[in-house]
Write a structure and sequence with these properties.
single chain, alpha+beta, 2 domains, 6-stranded mixed beta sheet, 4-stranded antiparallel beta sheet
Length: 171
């Protein structure tokens, strides 16, 4: 009886594995997309998808307010560069040091027929003192990337809003 039970378990295990492998082979593959964000002192860095197969790296210098992005071409060289100064968008009160947070997200913005379209990655920059957050995108031209053309362009300010309405008092 013990041999029959062991044999039965092995048969069911084999059937389960075979069934799982067959279903796994027919199941549509779902790609995994990951982004990274980090900061140190007065500098933040993040990554985000520009389109389905290309990623950008974003840099924010807290001291100058310069938001920059770079995209590598298919040969592993940076060939597209973008810039925007966020100081006027996220005004910090006189005498206060800016305190920024930066993350990326994905948004399927209506892109229209224009040659340059907003990237899939949206960069969100929040300023803690003012309680404002602004969103930025890259003007992406896939044809420039595929033809390995050097690109230098300003980033696109998308929108901004307040996330805090109460005044922040110094400690």
């Amino acid at each position: 009886m013990v041999d029959t039970l062991k044999h039965s378990r092995l048969v069911w295990l084999a059937i389960g594995l075979a069934l799982g492998m067959m279903i796994g082979g027919w199941w549509p593959a779902t790609p995994l997309h990951a982004v990274a964000t980090d900061r140190y002192d007065t500098f933040a860095i993040a990554t985000g998808p520009v389109d389905e197969s290309v990623e950008a790296i974003f840099f924010l210098d807290f001291l100058t307010g310069d938001l920059r992005a770079a995209v590598m071409n298919q040969y592993g060289k940076f060939s597209a560069f973008y810039h925007y100064n966020i100081l006027t968008d996220l005004a910090v009160e006189q005498g206060k040091a800016p305190r920024y947070l930066m993350v990326t997200g994905v948004n399927d913005i209506q892109r229209g027929a224009a040659r340059a379209r907003p990237s899939r990655a949206i960069v969100y920059v929040a300023e803690i003192n003012s309680g404002e957050v602004a969103a930025y995108a890259i003007p992406w031209i896939r044809q420039s990337w595929t033809s390995n053309q050097m690109v230098k362009a300003p980033m696109i300010p998308m929108d901004k809003t307040k996330f805090r309405t109460a005044a922040v008092r110094p400690n």
